[in-house]
Design brief:
By secondary structure, the protein is mainly alpha-helical. The protein is built from 4 helices and 2 strands; from the N terminus they run βαβααα. A two-stranded parallel ribbon has the order 1-2.
């Protein structure tokens, strides 16, 4: 089963269309492109990604484990998608730390449930069965 990150971003500062992206957000204030993410994906065993447009807002994050438990209990593991929010996640944690947070928050998942969370659900939701190639 392919492992999929269902939420990450790319951007070029030269486009100038991200008003929230300022030099004060030092780790984010640079270009982020597929070539930057590819080695991180390989390191974490992620096969594909789904790119999301960077929104013009940011939120503070509290205790992720409580939220992850609540969402898993409310919706069930067949309706959850793993999404790193890379590179925005770098404000709080590395890509590997995001993967670890999810894994540690849901330690009792079966292999099938973990496969769904890290890829199967995204394949079904985004109808990726016929997609081939590298980063999506």
């Amino acid at each position: 089963m392919p492992r999929i990150d269902a939420h990450q971003h790319y951007w070029l500062l030269s486009r100038g269309d991200y008003g929230w992206l300022t030099p004060e957000l030092s780790i984010l204030y640079q270009d982020y492109l597929p070539v930057d993410l590819e080695p991180i994906l390989q390191e974490n065993g992620i096969d594909k990604t789904i790119v999301v447009q960077a929104a013009a807002t940011e939120e503070e994050h509290g205790d992720f484990e409580d939220y992850i438990h609540c969402v898993a209990q409310t919706f069930g593991t067949r309706r959850l998608l793993f999404g790193s929010d890379w590179p925005v996640c770098l404000l709080a944690a590395s890509y590997s730390q995001v993967v670890d947070i999810v894994n540690k928050a849901l330690p009792n998942l079966t292999d099938a449930e973990r496969d769904d969370l890290f890829g199967g659900n995204a394949i079904r939701f985004y109808k990726l069965n016929n997609k081939i190639g590298g980063i999506t």
